[in-house]
Every structure is written in structure tokens, then in C-alpha cells.
Write a structure and sequence with these properties.
Layout: E1 4-11, E2 18-26, E3 39-47, H1 50-65, H2 97-102, E4 104-109, H3 117-132, E5 136-141, H4 147-153, E6 164-169, H5 171-182, H6 189-195, E7 198-202, H7 208-216, H8 223-232, E8 234-244, E9 249-252, E10 255-259, H9 260-267, H10 277-289, E11 293-301, H11 303-309, H12 319-326, E12 342-349, E13 351-355, E14 377-382, H13 387-397, E15 408-420, E16 428-430, E17 433-435, E18 440-453
Parallel strand pairs: 4-5, 4-6, 6-7
Antiparallel strand pairs: 1-2, 2-3, 8-9, 8-18, 10-13, 10-16, 11-12, 11-15, 13-14, 14-15, 15-18, 16-17
Helix pairs in contact: 3-8, 4-5, 5-6, 9-10, 10-13
Length: 454
């Protein structure tokens, strides 16, 4: 039953008999000539009368949903969202039993993601799979930037209807949905993020969160496999972070880049029609320019980072110096309990990259060993490298080998503050989106949201 997603009854073609259709998506190994996407198989069984055919279908679907004593546990997957989605906290109305039993998904599709790829993904395979699994869908085709944000903030978003929020597009659409929910004027946003799982399906350029979920599920990267995980997976915690800029607060799930990383990501937007190739072309261009950015990075390190780093990889300062440098950042950086965990680095940077997932994009293993819910940032700092070394570094990010380079400083932190001082106007890339430039502070929100994974 592990690979079966649902069954249906229909009249057998050309006969008076009734047919039971069983839909299976079997895994296949990823090879030179295979995408690794699960292979669709349809098994047909005919019955002389409709009652027995319907009974078989109902029994199979009940087992898949866990309502016949089986469910996800038969495949070693506990808590399949068909039946076990946690309700919204008791102080608020609970998720309707009908939404859980019938598995109604709110599905956002960005028709412009990935040069129109997201629409093809949904209408070509994902929509069919949801139908085969017996999922009811409320489909929202976004018409403009901010459409999904406005939808989840409006009264049109009836939280009691949905068991899952499915997002077909890139990380930008996920960012829009997460921030729209988190900042709901009704004040229930964080409760909703903790209650209704997100199911991202790759249809954009980067797709870092979708890739990270598939990686954690030991599934090859494909839209079909992401849809399979959305159907068969169970709710799993996802860390968010609260990011404070000069003008407001954003909620992040992926990464923040400054310097070379953000230049490549954001300033290559005009080449978006080229897909991921735009990133490689932009990398060559910006490595050639080798811009340097001056600023100050303050971090509250984890005990793990303290024990493995010991302060040797960065500028080592006395407690008095650390106190003085951290005084302007405010908040948790002035908490006396964090004094011995603080680290401050000042000077010129080639890049600062704070990641929260294993992958920043489908082909970028940016965070080897990083979990969806490890409760910390992994922060990379590069201050000195030749152009050739920078090119090698960006190539090595694909495999995760960038962390092995001596010039790459790696820190594990609960929070950080970045204060640019350079005369050159810089850019922040937060989950692939541009946010306000200037002092920026981020703090991990452990397990603040949920996603579906196997």
C-alpha cells in the first residue's frame, strides 16, 4: 500500500460491468536517462455488480486514510494527514472534520513561475494525482504579485476548510504565503502555520524548500514526487525565522544572502527566462567584479558552534569588546545570558549566507547536515578568496563540498545581526526576495510551521 495513492470506481468501457481503478506511483532509480520521478501505474479490476466494486474501493481508500486500522502506519509512516492533522489550538475553531476526512487542499499556482512551468506542472500531473487520491481542491491561480499574500489575509480564506496548503511555484510563492499567513490582521497567523501543513511543489527557478523536503524524505527531485509526498506524507516541523529590517518584520524559511550570493541571485533576475543557467552566468560576471562589502556581523552562537569553533575561525575579542560591539543590536544580543555565546566579526566580506534548509535550490546543497527543524542558522562567512577560488566555491555548493574550504567560516547560531557599513549599495536576498537594506536582525523560530514529508 505504500505506493498506492487512491482508488476509484467507474463503468468498464464497452461492458455492463463495473471497474475498480487503483492508482500507484512506484519509485524508480534516478539514472542517466531517468528523472527519478515516480512512475504512474493504473490497475483495473472488473466486477459484475456495482456494490462489491464500491465496497472494495471504499475499503482501499479507508486503509489509505487510516480509518480501517491501517493507514500510513502500514508503510512505516505515522501521522498521515488523511486523518491525523492536528487541529487549530482549542481557543479557536478546530479544522472541520470534513476537511480532514475528504482532504481538501488549498492549492496556489503561479502561472509565471519558472517561465510558465508551474501551470504545466499542475495541469500535467499534480492536479491529476490529487484527483486520483480523492483530494478536493480549491484552486487559486495567482494573477499578480501579492495575490496569494492578499488571499490568505482576507475573509475568503476559510481556515476550517483546509487540511493542507499546496504551493505550486517557486520559493517566492512560498514566501508570499508564509508571510501572508504570519501577518494576518486577525492575529491567528502563527497558530495557522503550526496547524496546517505546507506542501511546496517545484514549479519555479530555485525550489529550495521543495528540494529540501524531498531530500529529507529520501525522494528524488521531481514535481511528481513532491505531489506524492503531499498525498502520502505526514506533518513534520519546519523552523522559521523572524527577520527584522529597518521597516518591518519578515518570516523566512530558507536563507538570507549578502554580498556575492545576493548579487548573483537578485541581479540576475533579468535573465530569469534562462532558468537556473542565469545563476551560473551571473556568477562568472560578479566573481569578475569581486565586490567587497564592509560591515559587522554579530551572532549568538549555539553550544555546538562554540565547542567546534572555539572562536578561532573569526575575530576573537574580549568580553568587553563583544559587549561594546553588540550593544547597538538590541534585543536578544543584550541578554546577559547570551554573553559567552556572542561573536562579532567586523571588516570586509565577500559574502555572508545564513541558511535554514539543506538546499537553497534544486541543484545547490547549501546546507549539508542542516535539518528542517534543527532550531539554528548555519552561517557561512567568506572574507578572503581569489577569483578562481570563488568560482570553485560556487561549483562546490552543488555537492555541499564548499564547507570543506578553510576560507569558509561556518557558524551555528540562534540569531544574528548584520550591519552594513560599506559605501557600496548592497542587496539582501531573503528566500530569493529583495528586502530592505540596512541593519537586519534575525532570530530562529523553532518548529513554528509544518510541512508534509515522508
Amino acid at each position: 500500500m505504500c505506493d498506492i495513492i487512491g482508488s476509484k470506481v467507474h463503468a468498464a468501457a464497452g461492458t455492463a460491468k463495473h471497474a475498480l481503478l487503483i492508482y500507484e506511483y512506484a519509485p524508480r532509480n534516478k539514472g542517466c536517462f531517468s528523472s527519478g520521478a515516480r512512475k504512474r501505474k493504473v490497475f483495473e479490476f472488473t466486477f459484475a455488480e456495482s456494490t462489491m466494486c464500491a465496497l472494495w474501493s471504499e475499503t482501499i481508500n479507508a486503509v489509505l486514510r487510516g480509518t480501517a486500522g491501517g493507514g500510513g502506519a502500514s508503510c512505516g509512516v505515522q501521522g498521515n494527514p488523511m486523518t491525523s492533522l492536528a487541529p487549530v489550538p482549542a481557543a479557536e475553531p478546530t479544522i472541520a472534520s470534513e476537511a480532514v476526512a475528504r482532504r481538501r487542499f488549498l492549492v496556489f499556482v503561479n502561472p509565471h513561475s519558472g517561465t510558465g512551468h508551474a501551470s504545466k506542472v499542475y495541469h500535467g500531473s499534480v492536479g491529476r494525482m490529487l484527483g486520483e487520491a480523492g483530494v478536493d481542491v480549491d484552486l487559486v491561480i495567482t494573477q499578480r504579485a501579492g495575490h496569494a499574500f492578499d488571499h490568505v489575509q482576507s475573509d475568503a480564506f476559510d481556515r476550517s476548510r483546509y487540511a493542507v496548503i499546496c504551493i505550486v511555484g517557486g520559493d517566492g510563492l512560498v514566501f508570499e504565503v508564509v508571510n501572508g499567513i504570519a501577518s494576518r490582521p486577525q492575529g491567528d497567523g502563527m497558530q495557522l502555520l503550526a496547524a496546517i501543513p505546507l506542501a511546496p511543489i517545484p514549479g519555479g527557478t530555485g525550489n529550495g524548500l521543495a528540494k529540501s523536503i524531498l531530500f529529507a524524505s529520501d525522494e528524488p527531485y521531481s514535481a511528481v514526487n513532491s505531489a506524492f509526498v503531499a498525498i502520502k506524507g505526514s506533518p513534520h516541523p519546519l523552523d522559521l525565522s523572524s527577520v527584522q529590517t529597518v521597516t518591518g518584520t519578515h518570516f523566512s524559511f530558507l536563507s538570507l544572502g549578502w554580498g556575492l550570493i545576493s548579487d548573483i541571485d537578485i541581479l540576475s533576475e533579468s535573465l530569469r527566462c534562462m532558468g537556473e543557467m542565469r545563476l551560473y552566468l551571473a556568477a562568472v560576471y560578479f566573481i569578475g567584479k569581486k565586490r567587497r562589502y564592509r560591515g559587522k556581523l554579530s551572532m549568538v552562537l549555539t553550544t555546538e558552534s562554540i565547542s567546534t569553533d572555539g572562536g578561532a575561525a573569526g575575530t576573537t575579542e574580549s568580553d568587553k569588546d563583544v559587549e561594546a560591539n553588540a550593544s547597538s543590536t538590541g534585543g536578544i544580543f543584550n541578554d546577559p545570558a547570551t554573553v559567552k555565546f556572542r561573536k562579532v566579526i567586523e571588516g570586509e566580506f565577500l559574502l555572508v549566507w545564513a541558511v535554514q534548509t539543506s538546499h537553497a535550490a534544486a541543484t545547490m546543497h547549501s546546507g549539508p547536515g542542516v535539518l528542517l527543524d534543527d532550531g539554528m542558522f548555519t552561517i557561512y562567512v567568506v572574507r578572503h578568496m581569489s577569483r578562481f577560488e570563488l568560482l570553485q566555491l560556487l561549483i562546490e555548493v552543488d555537492s555541499g563540498d564548499h564547507v570543506k574550504r578553510v576560507a569558509v567560516e561556518v557558524y551555528k547560531a540562534h540569531s544574528y545581526c548584520l550591519e552594513p557599513e560599506t559605501d557600496t549599495k548592497g542587496i539582501y536576498s531573503l528566500d530569493g526576495e529583495v528586502v530592505e537594506y540596512g541593519p537586519i536582525t534575525a532570530e530562529v523560530l523553532p518548529q513554528a510551521a509544518r510541512v508534509l514529508r515522508i
